[in-house]
Design goal:
This is Secretory carrier membrane protein. This protein has 172 residues and is mainly α. The protein contains 6 helices and no strands.
Length: 172
């Protein structure tokens, strides 16, 4: 032991006299907790902004669905809204239904053509592969183009009554 250790008062205060002895000894920890609380508050406000943004997106989507309808066609991968019962005036429903049936007959004919080409390929014809490839191409090209360039413009024309009135005036 050194001589300074012997003369040192073991009961002497190491703190200053300006501090309150009744202060909370965990005050430093509460400041740590307050930093954590602030960080949590920042995180919660970010989540709240994100939820508000998502709510706005959902409201916009609901408004779009209310305005334009929900995409329902084709059934396996809906791209457009197609509902003869909801969008076409009563006087034009039989005509548009018949046109849609004709388009379905065209598409069915293309499917039957592909099946026939599969039979030609399995029977051993020399050009069976070319025929099958062409029939598959016909399904996608003719099927899609006939819907987009033939049926859908007629459907849209009858859906919008004002356009129908203009066409009636031009034809007469």
């Amino acid at each position: 032991m050194s001589s300074s250790d012997i003369t040192k008062n073991p009961f002497a205060s190491t703190g200053s006299l300006d501090t309150n002895p009744f202060d909370d000894p965990f005050a430093d920890r509460t400041s740590q907790y307050s930093h954590e609380a602030q960080a949590r508050q920042v995180e919660l406000s970010e989540r709240e902004r994100d939820l508000e943004r998502r709510e706005q997106e959902l409201n916009n989507k609901a408004e779009h669905i209310r305005k334009h309808g929900r995409n329902n066609w084709p059934p396996f991968y809906p791209l457009i809204f197609h509902s003869i019962a909801d969008e076409i005036p009563d006087a034009s429903k039989p005509l548009i239904t018949r046109l849609y049936q004709l388009w379905l007959v065209l598409f069915g004919t293309l499917i039957i053509n592909m099946v026939a080409c599969i039979f030609i390929l399995t029977s051993g014809a020399s050009d069976g592969g070319k025929d099958l490839g062409a029939s598959i191409g016909y399904i996608f090209v003719i099927g899609a183009l006939s819907f987009l360039l033939w049926y859908r413009p007629i459907y849209n024309g009858y859906m919008k009554v004002r356009l129908l009135d203009v066409l009636t005036i031009i034809v007469n």
